[in-house]
């Protein structure tokens, strides 16, 4: 397996690479993700992170934000690289970048795997019923 290279705001990433990743993991089954729209998410994201192996995009995640809060979105890894720490590194890179920029960061746990996010410092809004999770910087 090649070395995995992580990068914040990778200006070389192309919309078609991200759309291929969305399709590969099943988040583009109706081909609703167009290159124009994907370029737009890169332009409007506060930050995004990529992971590459052998030049191939194998992971991606992004953050939307305003002056107070941010949302972690679209954390995805190709199936061949799951359980290799790729998503963890992507999230950690984004959390490190965020520092104290936001009062908090939230996400919706679509994978229903709260322990994954809890390892990174997120807490469930309501552990019994909610997939909404929060992270707050250490002030």
TrEMBL record:
Alphabetical list of PROSITE patterns matching this protein: GNAT
N-acetyltransferase domain mapped to chain residues: 8-138
Organism superkingdom: Bacteria
Protein name as catalogued: GNAT family N-acetyltransferase
Stored InterPro entries: Acyl_CoA_acyltransferase, GNAT_dom
């Amino acid at each position: 397996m090649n070395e995995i290279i992580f990068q914040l705001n990778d200006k070389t990433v192309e919309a078609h690479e991200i759309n291929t990743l969305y399709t590969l993991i099943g988040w583009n089954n109706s081909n609703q993700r167009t290159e124009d729209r994907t370029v737009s998410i890169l332009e409007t994201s506060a930050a995004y992170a990529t992971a590459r192996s052998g030049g191939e995009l194998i992971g991606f995640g992004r953050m939307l934000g305003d002056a107070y809060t941010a949302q972690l979105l679209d954390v995805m890894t190709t199936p061949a690289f799951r359980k290799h720490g790729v998503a963890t590194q992507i999230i950690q890179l984004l959390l490190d970048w965020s520092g104290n920029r936001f009062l908090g960061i939230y996400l919706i746990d679509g994978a229903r795997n709260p322990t994954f996010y809890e390892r990174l410092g997120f807490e469930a809004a309501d552990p019994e019923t909610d997939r909404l999770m929060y992270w707050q910087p250490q002030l």
